[in-house]
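Bit of a strange request maybe. I'm writing a small parser for structure token strings and I need a real example to test against, not something I typed by hand. Could someone generate the tokens for this chain?
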Amino acid sequence: MSTCASREEAEAIATRLVTDGTAACVNLIDKVTSIFQWKGKIEQASEVLLIIKTRSNAAGKVEETIRSMSSYECPEVIVLPVSGGAVQYLDWLESTVRMAAQSSTTE
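Reply from user aminoacidic:
Good idea to test on real output. This should exercise your parser:
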């Protein structure tokens, strides 16, 4: 998961992740209100939440992409393990990211 300061930034990051095969899918959820502590102050911001579907071995590349494209000084990158799900969906996710990783190594 990650958050972005704007819809445009979120779309750019999501598009890059899917286009380069680092993620099979990215959901963008608009108008998330975040309340957080930053540099000793309580802050509130309207953000776009990204839910990024990928494989665990691609998490480092996801983080690298987010860090390079985010406008935030300290971009959020949270990795959550998947403990189960619909087999057909998980197979699709696995094969989509694997195929992209294989094609990028042969180019």
